[in-house]
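Tutorial handout. Part one gives the primary structure; part two gives the three-dimensional structure as tokens.
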Amino acid sequence: MTATINARHEGKVSTRRTIVGTGIGNAVEWYDWAIYATFTPFIASQLFSKSDPASAVLSTLAIFAVGFVARPFGGFLFGWIGDRVGRKASMTLAVGLASLGSLMIGIAPTFASVGAWASLMLLVARLVQGLAHGGELPSSQTYLSEMAPREHRGFWATLIYTSGTVGILFGTLLGAVLNMALTT
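Part two.
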């Protein structure tokens, strides 16, 4: 009887870890996208020519859109990897690539120091992130559905959208707080 109780307890802990871990990963993904959108004017001023600020902002937003265009290709690529190698490997690779894209943006040199190479680095980083995020979202939603108890599959599958919204909310709030707190 003790073994049965322990097995149930371990199952509940595993279930919570699955939900929380997948939710946090998805929230961080959307947090990253919200941060990029919120800080577009600052990114534009650092990674594009300052001679035409409007063009720099539009270029930054175009690169933002490129990440969304890459997502379906990432879904196809990482879905294929998930089917051939396994979902865990696919998700791990997707998260690693998304992290690499974020790192590339974080360490990108300014336009003043390397010219158009800074803009190109931003483009490559967003393409990498778009591919990775396109693979991460469907993989994590499928994983949640597969791990869910039969009677809760629909509910579990929708949690991915809830966590994404939480990430967007925190990213936008951070942008608002920093905009109010910091000087020009």
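Part three, for discussion. Residues 2-38 form the longest helix (37 residues). The chain has a mean pLDDT of 88.
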